[in-house]
Amino acid sequence: MKNITTVRLKRLLFCDICEDIGFFHYTPYGADYSSCPLCENFCEYESDISGSDKKISLCPKCLILFDFYGCTHAEQGCTDSILNGHFISKWENKLTGDIYVGMPQFDEIEDWVQNMDNIKILEKICPNKGIPSCKYANYNESEFPQYYEKCDLSKDMDGSIAFIINQQK
Ligand SMILES: [Zn+2]
Ligand SMILES: [Zn+2]
Ligand SMILES: [Zn+2]
Question: Is the model's pTM score more than 0.70?
């Protein structure tokens, strides 16, 4: 387990229906899964981590954590909603007491199994903050504002995490 402050992406990510650019995740198959907002891989590894009111998912490819449910970008009815990715931006390693600005990344799934209880989340960010809700949502925000909670996370905590798009690919 290490702290990272830079995330490199192979390509720009965008919402499947309105094509706004951002970090979105999807909750298909009865919302038993959530896709990773960084690689769109489907994730089924969930955990409860102290300091978070939400379930946290592990992406087995990126080996990072994100909220199993971020805030809502597009309310699609039962299970097809599109959510804004929430990432950890400050955390404590409970074993050592060390506090990190950035997000934890694991070496492998076994590392996550061993260490997930040693993480205390101190801050999270919502990098999609400021991106309007989805104009093509089945239940769009202007008609159904009750489905769109106010997200109280900041967009970024003092540049805690840089997202860099790899232009090579
Ligand atoms: Zn991923
Ligand atoms: Zn949010
Ligand atoms: Zn959209």
Answer: yes
List Cβ neighbours of 168 (8 Å cut-off, separation of 6 or more).
Answer: none
Distance from the alpha carbon of residue 135 to the mean position of ligand 3, in angstroms = 6
Q: Which ligand is nearest to the CA of 65?
A: 1
pLDDT in tens, 27-71: 876 667 789 999 978 777 777 676 667 788 899 999 999 998 899
Distance, CA of 66 to CA of 23 (rounded, Å): 11
How far, in Å, CA of 42 to CA of 36, rounded?
Answer: 6
**Largest interatomic CA distance in the chain:** 49
Tell me which residue of 133, 154, 140, 28 sits closest to 84, measured CA to CA: 133
Q: Per the structure block, which two tokens stand in for 140? A: 């769009």
Which residues lie near ion ligand 2 (Cβ < 5 Å)? Answer: 71, 84, 126, 151
Q: Ligand 3 centre and the CA of 13: distance in Å?
A: 11
Closest C-alpha to 33, from 41, 42, 22, 25: 42
